Amino acid sequence: MSSVYQINKGVGRSLEFKGLRAQYIGYLAAGLVLLFLLFAVLYLCGVNTWACLVIIGASGGGLYIGVVRMSHRYGQYGLMKKMAKQRMPGYLYFRSRKLFTKLKEDL
Length: 107
What we know:
Blueprint: E1 16-17, E2 20-21, H1 23-44, H2 49-87, H3 98-106
Helix pairs in contact: 1-2
Transmembrane segments: 24-44, 50-71
InterPro entries: DUF4133 (IPR025407)
Protein name: DUF4133 domain-containing protein
């Protein structure tokens, strides 16, 4: 029996664009908006247009390379895990997860 409706098989998968996954797309978009604002400020301050383009072009290239490297190095959730680990106080350091995994078993 054939169905009239099509099934979306991408449900639950993370968003991906040109190799960038998840939050890295947002980081790149925010960086590009900031570069656009920097170009506007430099142009209004009287900096030569070609100098503005060179500065923004180099910064944009560096931004893109940096975001792609972070995307490939940390993956979808790795950067968030790293930032969470950095915010954790030193006196709350655990070498294993047994304490947390056995909590459910003990209840």
